[in-house]
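To close the chapter, one final illustration. This time we ask the reader to focus less on the individual chains and more on the assembly as a whole: which components sit near each other, and how the overall shape emerges from the parts.
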Amino acid sequence: MSLLSVEHLESQFVTEDGIVKAVDDVSFEIANNETLGLVGESGCGKTVLALSILRLLSENTKTRGIIRYRGRDLLQLSEDDLMAIRGREIAQIFQNPLSSLNPVLTVGFQISEPFMLHQGLKRKAARIKAVEMLERVRIPLPEERAREYPHEFSGGMRQRAMIAMGLACKPSLIIADEPTRGLDVTIQAQVVELMKELIKESCASMLIITHDLSLAAELCDKIAVMYSGEILEYAGIQDFFRKPAHPYSKCFLESLPARGMKPIRGISPSLIDPPPGCRFCPRCDHAREECKHVHPDLMKVKEGQYARCHIYA
Amino acid sequence: MFFNFVKRLGIFCLVLIISTTLVFFMLHSLPGEKAVVMAKYIFLGSVELNPSNEEIQLVKDKFDLDRSLISQYISWAGAALHGDLGRSYKSNDPVSQEILIRLPATITLAFVSVLMSLFIGIPLGILAAVKQNSITDYICSSTAVLGISMPNFWLALLLMLVFSLKLNLTPTIGYGGLSHLILPAVTLGTASSAVIMRLTRSSMLEVMRQDYIRAARGKGLSRKSIFITHALRNALIPVITIIGLEFGHLLGGTVIIETIFAWPGIGRLLIDSISARDIPVIQGCVLFITLMYMLLNFAIDAVYPLIDPRIGGN
Amino acid sequence: MQKTRSLNEFLKNKASVMGLIIILLLVMTAALADYISPYDTDKVVLKEKLKPPSWQHPMGTDQLGRDVLSRIIYGTRTTFELSMLVVLFTSAFGVFIGIIAGYYRGIVDEILMRLIDVLLAFPSIILALVIIGAIGPGVFNTVLAISLVGWLFYARVARASTLSIREKEYVEGARAMGCSDAYICFFYVLPNCLPPIIVLMTLNLGSVILSIASLGYLGLGAQPPIPEWGTMLNDGKEYLRDCPWLSVFPGLMIMISVLAFNFIGDGLRDAIDPRQLVIK
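The assembled structure is written out below.
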C-alpha cells in the first residue's frame, strides 16, 4: 500500500482577474521509501500542490479531492489532528530559507521547536538535539552556530538549517519545495549530495518539487511532469530520461543545457482560462485538430509510464 | 556597534546644535527687538508698555546688544555649555532653575501618556488583527480614526465637561495626586494610542502573511504558539520605532494640554514665555524639549538590537 | 487602465466616499457662506448673549450674543482658505525643492536632507510656536509658521520619488533626445511623483487644520473678531460649565473636517500602490 495517495486534487483561489485553478485534477502516489520528483516550469502550480498537502495555503484557497496518508484523508482531519502530523509524520522543507526562517529567533531555537513540540523534550534537551541536527547537516561549529540568527548564515547554510528542521522528528514523508533554488551551483551540488545521504539514512519517502531536471535525476525514483495545473506525464526515472512520452517532456528535456538548451516556443497558458483541449497544444509541434478541442486523459504508454496526450489513444 | 554609537552621538549633538541655532536666530530675527523687550521688563516691569528710546539705548549698551548676532549666539552657547541659560526677563530667575522646577511635571505627564498609549494601542491592535474584518476590528479601527482626528484641546474640554463638571469624578485643573493626572494623560495619550493601534494592526497582518509563519505552521505549531513566539516580536519592531516619533508628538501636545489643565510643566512655561516674549526662557524650553526627545530616541536605539537581532550586529 | 482601477478601488471604499461628500459639503458651505449664514457674524446683541441652542439660534449664541451657527459657517471659510493656502504653498515649494535635490543630487542635496531629517524629528507644533513667538500672533503669521515647517514632508517624498524616476529608461531616452533638464523635470518627473504627493496633501490638509485650530485655541492664531473654530473654542472655554455649546460645536466641526480628510487620504493611499509612500 502506498504511503501517500493523492486523488483528484483541485486547488483554486479567487483573484481580481478570475478563479485561478492552480492544481486541477491531480492524482499520484508515493510508496514507502520512494522519492517522487514533481517537475515543471515556474507558475505551473507545483508549490500550491506542495502546500495543499499539509493544508498550509491561505484561507481563501479552496482545496478538493482526497489526500490519503496512511489511510487517513488529510483534507478531512481536524486542525488539531493535522497539527500532530505536521512536522512529525510529514515534514516540509520550504523554498527560500531566508524568508522561511524567523529573523528574530536563533536558528538553534527554530530547529529545537519540533523536538519540544512532538517529543515533549524540555528546552535544554531539545537544544542538544538541535545542535546534533546541525552537525548532521554538516554545519561546522554547530554549538556556536545554533546561537546565531538566520541573517548570520550563508545561503547554503540556511538551506541546510531548513533541511535539519525538516528532518528533526524523523518524518515518514518529506516534502521538499525547490530545495536548491537560489544557491550557487557548487553549493547546490553539496546540498543534493547531503540530501541523497540523508534520504538513504532515514528511509523516508520524499516528494521533491523542482524546476531543475538534473536535481530530479539525482534524487528521484519517479517523475511527475506538471504543466498548467495538471500532470502531463508520470514515469519511472529511467524511462523518463531514456524515452519521454509526452511532447512537452521531450521539449523540457531538450531545453536542458546538456541536451542543446533548445527553448520551448510560446508561453505557458494562464491558469485562469486554460485552452479547452490539450493545454500544451498551442506550443506543440505534433498538435492535431482534436488536440485543440478534446481534453486528453492520462493514458498508459507502457507499464509504469503514463502521458496525457492523444498520441497514445 | 561602537561605530554606530559614535555616529548616533554625532547626530544627537548635531540636532541639538542646529535646533538651538535655528531657534536663536528666529527669536532674534527682528532687529532691535530683544533690546526693546528687555527694556520693557527692566524699566517698566511689563510687556504691555512701550519704553523710550533712551531706555532702549541704555539696555543695548549695558548688555552689549549692538554686536553681531553670531557673536551673541556664541556667548549664549558658551554659557549654555556650562549650564547657564541666562535669566528670565520676567522673573529674573535663572532659566535653568525655572525649567528644572517644571521638568518633573512634564516628564510624569509624557511618560504616563506613552505607557497608556502602549497598554491600550498594542493589545487593541493585536485584537483587531486577529479578528480581522470582524465587528471588533471595525469598532477598533473606526475608534482609532476618530482618536487621530479629534483635536486634543477639544477632547480635553469634553472630558473636563463630562468627568469634572457634570460627574464630579476628577478635579478640573491643577497639579497634585493621581486624580489630577488622569484627564491630562488620557487626553494626551488618545491620539498616540490610536496611532499605535493602527500600526500594530497593520504590522501584525503583514507579519502573519510572511513565509516563516507558514513554515512554523508546517512544523506543527499551534496557532497560539505561532502567535506568541513567532509573530508578536516581529510585529512589534515597527511599533518600537514609532514610539520615538510619538513621543515627539506628545511633547508637542504637552504645550496645549498643560495650558488647558494648568499643569505646571515646560509646555505651559513655553506658552507663557511666548506671550511674555521672554526670549531666554523660550530658548531654554526648546533646548530641554529637544534634549528629552533625543534622549528617548537614543534609548530606543539602544534597546532596538535586543528586539531585532538584524540591527546593530556586525 | 491603472487610473480607472485606482478610481474604482477608491469608490469601493465607503469611508472615503463619505469623506469626499463631507468635504464637498464643507467647501460649498465656505463658498456660499454669504447666502446661507442666518446672521451677521459680528452683530453683537448683548441681551441675546449665551442663549442655548434654539430654533432661532440652532447652535446658540456666544458671550457677545453673536449667532454661533453663523460664526461656524464663516469659520469654515477661514479654516478652508487658510489650510488650502498652506497646503498649496508648501506642496508647491516642497515638491520644487525635492525634485531639484533628487534630480541633481550632490552635496547640497545631502545637506538639505540631513537638515530636513533634523527638523522633521522635532515636534512641529513647537517649531511653529517658536516662529509665532518671534514674529507675533495673527492669521498671516499662522500660515507662515505652519508653512515654514510643512514643506519639509513634501520635499522628502518628492525627492525619494525623483531618485527612482530619474533612473528609469524613459528619462534616459528623453535625455538622449536632447530634452533640457527643466523639460524632463516638468514633463517626466513631476507627473510621476504626483500620486504619493496627492495622498500626502490630503492627509496633510487634516493635520494643517488641526495646527491652525491649535494655534487659534492658544490665542496665537486668528485674532478676534475673525470667526475661526480654534479661536471660538478658546473664547468659549470659560463658559464650559454653563454654556457647553460654545465648545462643543466648533470642536465637532474641526473633528469632522479632519476625519473626512483622513478618510479620503486612507482611501487614496490604499487605491494608489501603497508601497510608493515613503512616509507613514
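Chain B has two domains: 2-88, 102-306. The mean pLDDT of chain B is 86. With these observations in hand, you are ready for the problems at the end of the chapter.
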